[in-house]
Amino acid sequence: MPFVDNVKIEVKAGGGGDGCKSFYRDKFDRYPKADGGDGGRGGNIVIRADRNLFTLYDFKYRKHFYADKGGNGGPNRRKGRDAADKAVLVPQGTTVIDCATNAQLRELLEDGQEIIAAIGGGPGKGSVHANQEEDCQGQPGEQKELLLDLKIIADVGLVGFPNSGKSTLISRISNAHPKIASYPFTTQAPVLGIVNAGVKSFSVADIPGLIKDSHKGKGLGDRFLRHIERTKVLLHLIDMAGVDGRDPLDDYAVIDDELRAYSLSVYKRPRILAANKMDLPQSQSNLERFKKAVKKRIFPISALSSSGLKDLINALKKELFAHSS
Length: 325
Ligand SMILES: Nc1nc2c(ncn2[C@@H]2O[C@H](COP(=O)(O)OP(=O)(O)O)[C@@H](O)[C@H]2O)c(=O)[nH]1
Ligand SMILES: [Mg+2]
What we know:
This protein is an alpha/beta fold and 325 residues long.
């Protein structure tokens, strides 16, 4: 499914129902008595975060949302029905912005968190207590143009050069099945996968397309870099075989620089290094060289053959859950 993280929609709350203008007179009454009931309230537009959604893709095709009008009042003081709210579901991590004022209405982070984005119209008064004819009219509902802006929420952000094996890894350790190919930029969108790691599970987002100068807008990287912001731990994958003819040490340094240039707070986040493609013969000597130059712990793995993945997942779990349990 293509990834959409920024979309404009139109919402219109329901109008209030009209009050009833009826009058009643039985044979003993000299003057008619007002007996028209009030209208019902118009439905609000509610925007709600839902944990089962991961993109704003559906909004590419459906951009208009209406809530129902309140029911009209009836004779004999019968009140019109209040209209139900209309819920618009969005992924967690969506910010709702009012396009007219550019004001941020709310960031919806938790599952079920919601905001009333447009208020339904107030009801018209029935003739029972309307002073003027105009009082009987229901009020129109609010109408707004909204910008929905998504930043993925994931526990782990997976970074690395194109072709380092991010898609392969995420398909091995999670429920996600992205496209895999041996040419760069096969992944055109961040992919979110859930890893079931024993009792606990965590989410991993593949942040594709990072290359040198991504933070300046080169390649696809800057489109996706912002999705790193809401991850807790970074997993940096390095093609230790240098399949594309680059030195793994350079690859490491380039991504490291990109992260630092993009955001210092992202750069300082806990980061786990993994040396991928250890099934290839040239990887071992590269790894020795890497260890000497970069004095950090690195997990040797092969996403292709699944070797070393258990230790890697345990390390991620430890980093994510060590403080919470
Ligand atoms: N030999 C070997 N090849 C791998 C490994 N992991 C990924 N690849 C290959 O590397 C290429 C790029 O992989 P992909 O997962 O699409 O990389 P991405 O661009 O980082 O998502 C594909 O041809 C994969 O089959 C590995 O552990 N060993
Ligand atoms: Mg990929």
